[in-house]
């Protein structure tokens, strides 16, 4: 379904995110017929260049990141939507020109793909030059602050010129198809929800493992670390979608209210319930300390923790979270281990094992439910656990299996005015309020993160988190 006619301004249009994700995503939506040909996409950045040079730059990025041919007629048509205005975020240059490019009657959206230190300047100038009005939307990228205090300051700064209904805080994990699917699996099937609580679920494991290191972006990452880069936002969102109560409706505030309740119910994490790690160099690849260009750095590239949610539904069911760079495989999944049946009528040696539901976010997005069946043959009642496994792409066939990139979905939601998959200001603040004490305790201690080998499953210490509870991490593969 096409969205309404819009003017979208992308601040930071010459940057990496814009090249890799935003423009390729917009192009794919254009090809899908979702973007009206009258719409305008205006790049804005400090570099001085004209529309033609900018279109060339973006054409190069789209060719590189989508694989489309340079001569593709769709690309030629898409480029016609593009314009460029050189802008000084902290000064006056370019703002009048930008204003003259905006059309009356079209939806106006402004994407801040820039450092958070510029958010305030952009918001203020959009307002003072009367470029934005009450109907305009602004989109802001992570990191949204680096602690509670800075997140509050950012929220307050944006609130001077924009209402909460106008602010779209991106967490690209919420744009991933399978992440949205978590809500559908839970709330559109009768099968799972009655069992979705501490009475029937033994524990939950959430893993986001990456094979890449931080080389090339060490300067940013070293000030951030896995806790700020992944846990406070992406992992927290996954946790919320798994743990939240059913919202009364699929409506932005109804969903976000329920997520917020989960974050507020998180218990503070005990130092003993958290392990942080840093990858080391081996013959083939550099270690974290080289990538971060600080031989003394104590920033974590891996974190594993046991999280408890203090409410009726989850009393006694731990959630184990882990994420890290340079691990054995790139895999993101949520594994829900149910309890064993209370009584077995079968021979104990081959008796039932706990059911497990694994939701794979990437790669091979899909679900795997492990169930017990009888092993075929005359040898008596022997039980065996087998997978009910499906990948969404296969199950839905070539038409339905097209998985749009997270950014495609999210940018279209901005134009539609749907905030469901964006973080509300209070959610972000609550997440920082929970992570701040953990990070502060690390800063205060002089302890170094546990070393781990590149290509491994993380530091040995992280095994202990589950072993002492008589549980095991799932293999990363
Ligand atoms: C980003 C982090 O937000 O998410 C990166 O800054 C991380 O460090 C990335 O690599 C992971 O996203 P995805 O979509 O590749 O799982």
UniProtKB/TrEMBL annotation:
Catalytic residues identified in the record: 234 (proton acceptor)
Residues of the Glucose-6-phosphate dehydrogenase NAD-binding domain: 9-181
Q: Does the keyword Transcription regulation apply?
A: no
Record-listed NADP(+) binding positions? 46, 142
Group of enzyme by EC: oxidoreductase
Cited Pfam families: G6PD_C, G6PD_N
SUPFAM superfamilies, A to Z: Glyceraldehyde-3-phosphate dehydrogenase-like, C-terminal domain, NAD(P)-binding Rossmann-fold domains
Q: List keywords of the entry alphabetically.
A: Carbohydrate metabolism, Glucose metabolism, NADP, Oxidoreductase
List the transmembrane segments.
none
Reactions catalysed: D-glucose 6-phosphate + NADP(+) = 6-phospho-D-glucono-1,5-lactone + NADPH + H(+)
**Origin superkingdom:** Bacteria
Where is substrate annotated to bind? 172, 176, 210, 229, 325
Name the InterPro entries on file.
G6P_DH (IPR001282), G6P_DH_AS (IPR019796), G6P_DH_C (IPR022675), G6P_DH_NAD-bd (IPR022674), NAD(P)-bd_dom_sf (IPR036291)
| Cited HAMAP family | G6PD
Q: Which family does it belong to?
A: Belongs to the glucose-6-phosphate dehydrogenase family.
What function does the entry list?
Catalyzes the oxidation of glucose 6-phosphate to 6-phosphogluconolactone.
Name recorded for this polypeptide: Glucose-6-phosphate 1-dehydrogenase
The organism named in the record is Paracoccus onubensis
Q: What is the lineage of its organism?
A: Bacteria, Pseudomonadati, Pseudomonadota, Alphaproteobacteria, Rhodobacterales
Q: Which gene encodes it?
A: zwf
């Amino acid at each position: 379904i096409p969205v309404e006619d819009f003017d979208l301004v992308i601040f930071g249009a010459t940057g990496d995110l814009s090249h890799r994700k935003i423009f390729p995503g917009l192009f794919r939506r254009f090809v899908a017929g979702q973007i009206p040909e009258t719409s305008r996409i205006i790049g804005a950045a400090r570099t001085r260049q004209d529309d033609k040079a900018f279109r060339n730059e973006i054409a190069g990025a789209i060719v590189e990141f989508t694989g489309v041919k340079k001569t593709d007629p769709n690309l030629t048509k898409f480029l016609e939507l593009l314009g460029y205005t050189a802008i000084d975020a902290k000064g006056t240059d370019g703002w009048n020109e930008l204003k003259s490019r905006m059309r009356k009657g079209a939806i106006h959206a402004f994407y801040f793909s820039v450092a958070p230190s510029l958010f305030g300047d952009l918001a203020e100038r959009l307002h003072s030059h009367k470029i934005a009005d009450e109907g305009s939307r602004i989109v802001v990228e992570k990191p949204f602050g680096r602690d509670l205090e800075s997140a509050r300051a950012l929220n307050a700064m944006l609130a001077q010129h924009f209402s909460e209904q106008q602010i779209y805080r991106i967490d690209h994990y919420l744009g991933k198809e399978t992440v949205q699917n978590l809500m559908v699996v839970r709330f559109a099937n009768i099968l799972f929800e009655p069992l979705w609580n501490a009475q029937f679920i033994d524990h939950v494991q959430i893993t986001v493992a990456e094979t890449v290191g931080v080389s090339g972006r060490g300067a940013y990452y070293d000030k951030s670390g896995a806790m700020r880069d992944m846990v406070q936002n992406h992992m927290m969102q996954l946790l919320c979608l798994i743990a939240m109560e059913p919202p009364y409706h699929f409506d932005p505030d109804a969903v976000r209210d329920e997520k917020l309740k989960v974050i507020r119910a998180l218990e503070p994490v005990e130092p003993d319930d958290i392990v942080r790690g840093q990858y080391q160099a081996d013959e083939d690849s550099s270690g974290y300390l080289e990538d971060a260009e600080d031989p003394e750095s104590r920033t974590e590239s891996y974190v594993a923790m046991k999280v408890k949610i203090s409410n009726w539904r989850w009393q006694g069911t731990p959630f184990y979270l882990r994420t890290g760079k340079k691990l054995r495989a790139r895999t993101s999944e949520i594994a829900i281990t149910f309890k064993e049946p209370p009584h077995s009528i079968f021979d104990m040696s081959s008796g039932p094992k706990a059911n497990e539901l694994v939701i794979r976010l990437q790669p091979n997005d899909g679900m795997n439910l492990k169930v017990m069946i009888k092993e075929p043959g005359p040898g008596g009642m022997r039980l065996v656990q087998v997978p009910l496994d499906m990948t969404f792409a296969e199950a839905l066939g070539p038409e339905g299996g097209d998985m749009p990139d997270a950014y495609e979905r999210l940018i279209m939601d901005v134009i539609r005015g749907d905030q469901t998959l964006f973080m509300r200001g209070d959610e972000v603040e609550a997440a920082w309020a929970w992570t701040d004490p953990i990070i502060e305790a690390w800063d205060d201690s002089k302890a170094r993160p546990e070393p781990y080998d590149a290509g491994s499953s993380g530091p040995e210490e992280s095994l202990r988190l589950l072993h002492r509870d008589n549980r095991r991490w799932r293999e990363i593969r």
